[in-house]
Amino acid sequence: MAKLNINGTVREVSAEADTPLLWVIREHVGLTGTKYGCGIAQCGACSVHFNGEVQRSCQIPLGQITESDVIVTIEGLSSNTSHPVQKAWAAVDVPQCGYCQSGQIMAAAALLKKNPKPTDKDIDEAMTNICRCGTYQRIREAVHMAANGGGTTGQGG
């Protein structure tokens, strides 16, 4: 039995030590906002915050996680979609199919926590998640909007 701090709640999970955190979150805890995309840490659909850093949860085995580790999923980013990134995503109408969006939002939130006023170059370098629909321009616009308090879009340098 492992104890995990997910979204501020300690949860007991029974799974093999090599089970990826992604599957623990989805199948054992029942939080399905974190998506499976590729399973090899390339696409970013499974991105979560792990001890304050954006991480691909498909590559973190349960056996390497302790109760002192802090895991935040898209469900834990805000209880009512009031996080500035979530608000900007809706305002800019970023999603097309929407599948990658929870991972994109988690990556954007982590970026803005480290760099509250990113340039276009900063965004392009930090946002390595794949969007098959190609909404990258809207993603960049939403990150700038969130950085500017959600009211207006910004132009990075």
What do these coordinates show?
The protein has 157 residues and is of the alpha+beta class. It has two domains: 76 residues, Roll (Ubiquitin-like (UB roll)); 64 residues, Orthogonal Bundle (DNA polymerase, domain 1). 35% of the residues lie in helices and 13% in strands. The chain has a five-stranded mixed sheet with strand order 2-1-5-3-4, with helices on both faces. Strand 3 and strand 4 form a beta hairpin. Helix 3 crosses helix 6 and helix 4 packs across helix 6. It is globular, with a radius of gyration of 15 Å. The termini are far apart. The C terminus is likely disordered.
Structural class: alpha+beta
- How far apart, in Å, are the first and last alpha carbons? 49 Å
CATH 4th-level superfamily of the largest domain: Beta-grasp domain
Percent of residues in helices comes to 25-40%
The name of the CATH architecture of the largest domain is: Roll
Judging from the principal axes of the Cα atoms, what is the shape? globular
How many structural domains in the coordinates? Answer: 2
Radius of gyration: 15 Å
Low-confidence regions: 151-157
- Largest sheet, spatial ordering of strands: 2-1-5-3-4
Beta strand %: 5-15%
Main β sheet profile: 5 strands, mixed
Average pLDDT number = 94
Keywords: 2Fe-2S, Iron, Iron-sulfur, Metal-binding, Oxidoreductase
Domain 2Fe-2S ferredoxin-type: 1-77
GO molecular function, one term: metal ion binding
Protein name: Isoquinoline 1-oxidoreductase, alpha subunit
